[in-house]
Amino acid sequence: MKKSLLFLLGQLCLCLSLTLAGLAQDNPQSPASETTKGIGTISGELVDSFTGKPIEYATVALLQSGSTQATSGTLTDSGGRFAFTGVAPGNYDITFSFIGYDTKTIRQLSVTAGNPKVVTGPVMLRPVSTQLKEVNVQTLRPTITQEADRMIVNVEGTAMAAGSTAYEVLAKSPGVFIDQEGNIQLNGRAGVTIMLDGKLTYLSARDLRNLLEGMAAENIKNIEIITNPSAKYDAEGSSGILNINLKKNTQQGMNGSLNASYRYNGKQHGYSAGGNINYKSGKWNSFLNLDAARRVGGREATFTRVFKGETETVYFDQVATGNYEVEGPPFVRLGTDYSLNDRQSIGFTTSYGTNFLETDFLTDTYIGTAPNQPALYIDANNYSTNRFTNFSNNLHYAGKFDTLGTTLTADLDYVKIMNDGESNFYNYFDSLATDDPVAKDFLYTSTPNNFDIYAAKIDFTKAFAGGNKLELGAKASRVISDNDSRFFFNNSEVPVLDLRRTNHFIYDENIYAGYITWSSKLGEKFNVQAGLRAEQTQSRGESRTTGQVTERDYLNLFPSFFLNQKVNENYEINYSYSRRLQRPNYGQLNPFFSYRDPYTYWQGNPYLRPQYTHAVGITQIFKKNYSLILNYQLTEDVIVELPAIEAETSTTIYYIGNADKSKNLSVTGVAPFKIMKNWDTNNTVVASYNKYSTMVNKVQVVNDQVSYTIQSNHNILLPKELRLEVNGTYQGPAVYALYVVEPRWWVNLGLKKSFFDEKLDVTINANDIFKSQRLIIAALVGEGNVNDFNQYFRNRNVGLTLRYNFSRGQKLEERRRNNNLDELNRTGG
């Protein structure tokens, strides 16, 4: 299989090489074109009529005189220059256009054999006066927009983003549900891939939450919700992709912003401060982002369990309080792009972040053989610390070879992730039925783990006349994971290693992938895209403690198909199909025990299998703003957390296993509308049917539910240019694996005011103002057994944010950067 896939990758690279060679011959900008396509040239320079400075990346169209159809097109370079070569004799018009400027046309330029070289001289474009201020005052940016293949949640500039973290904004997105462990679901389905700027994050649920909680939502442009990705995307992510796009520099000169915020959740004080500086001059476009914070949070919870044994029933009641604080030096992200010419650029992005997390989890547990009659009381106090470090690097190239959209991009990535954690567990056992002294059991764990990730990819797009397009790509990645979890009895001066709960786990994984897609226009009303992706996975997991080795080597094909039908100007339908998978993350494959309290453990599973999903979707879009989306997914070998009850010891072990299958049918409606002139709303309704089938103690358990979520976002312009945002969400009852989730709802408010010509923004936030976002879950664990959770994660808080923006420049075309890594989502446990 390995040889077959390497052969496929070789063929792809050969195809790319031959195509690039053809481009060098066909590119109208190349010197060879001048002698093959015509005798003449038309060139000139485009400048700002007010400042006299060159205008770069403006659109220049060449037309036959008297015609409205462009015969060729180009962009101005960093000096405002443009040139058309190989121009046949004739009379031509040239049209210049750029955001923020009036369009201008120069007519009747004549190319003849006697005058083959035409130079226009400086062409002056006049800036559009007062084009932005009136728009900002009179209109409201839509919070949610629907495109043909994705839903986009706009975050930039909203009051709800001020003072919030990326994690909080993600949790408020339509159809997104995050459970008590930080696992993300989309429309009731697990297996969601998280990307930053089209690049996967390589993090476990815990580490991803650490990263997103340390990232200010102020730096987010939008979130893309892609429920049915094409073959171009990694097959990872059986329920779809959530892509967080960060703000990019689109202004000349130096510009940036500074921000500071304070937040209080009723028990803890948190703050954040940060800034970004962007500098664009000539061929360089560079940026530097800093974000420092003290993030705080916690939970109040009750856990109720009933263990039905053969001879007696044990009742377990627990009250818990958890707190966390995480802070560290500023998270740094910097990068630059260099324009080799007006068609090609190279650059790099690097980021470094480290933080120190302190948590405590304090529980009072009562155990007895009759309800409300405990015989044993356990006071368990858990204290943990963790140093998390993420070092990411990316080198990239982007080239655009013609005006039709022929492009080539390449990326090299290296990521280093380190976790250095330790925990102390202090357990006190007090027998309520006797006068025996309190017994003590002290435990200690050390859990360092490291990940090294290497990836390389190349993507090529060739556009043809008539709306046809070919896309090819290849990718290879390697992941090396080292997790050395040590568990100690700490009742004496010298800790004693517990071999049963200690495990050193090494995991290596190689993934080789290639894809091809073809897009074509079928008449005036139909567009079709078909694609096929191949991914070969080779992995080896080794427990150094037990000597257990698990090896995998498998090749999978992932087809995709999309059909767009434009019924009329106000109505279009999109049909889609794709096959995807979800691999176990690296921590889930580690068979070690993770300790929570004397009666609660979590355990990995080296025998986990990937889950596979068939997804079918139909999206109807009305008047380009209203949409109705129907999705069906069938998933086999669903990776889920399952509780196992040991009635004899009153112990619950949560382990990761494969459920047989799940089915999901969902309907999503998006309806933005204006209540009045200064009051816009975006409304989303998701109705879904989820069904899980799982074997528990050799008995088939079916868990199904019709669920629904209603979300309404309101943007209101008040007098004195105050902007009010209101977000209301209701989630009906839901199911996941063996769990049943009770309904919950919440309301968030944001009030924003700008000063000093919109350079200073002041925002006040109030989240979950009714303290109703409580998570109540029950597990189906067999007849007579109970495993219930009731938790509140301190979502109610108030905050104040100040943001100052300095220096504004002209908008210019954003360069396309295609980063799409897959391995980060699966590190850790």
From TrEMBL:
Keywords: Cell outer membrane, Membrane, Receptor, Signal. It comes from the Bacteria. It is found in: Cell outer membrane. Transmembrane segments: none annotated. This is TonB-dependent receptor domain-containing protein. Residues 1-24 form the signal peptide. Its main location: membrane. It holds the Pfam family CarboxypepD_reg. Residues 400-804 form the Outer membrane protein beta-barrel domain. PANTHER family: PLUG DOMAIN-CONTAINING PROTEIN (PTHR40980), TONB-DEPENDENT RECEPTOR-LIKE BETA-BARREL DOMAIN-CONTAINING PROTEIN (PTHR40980:SF4).
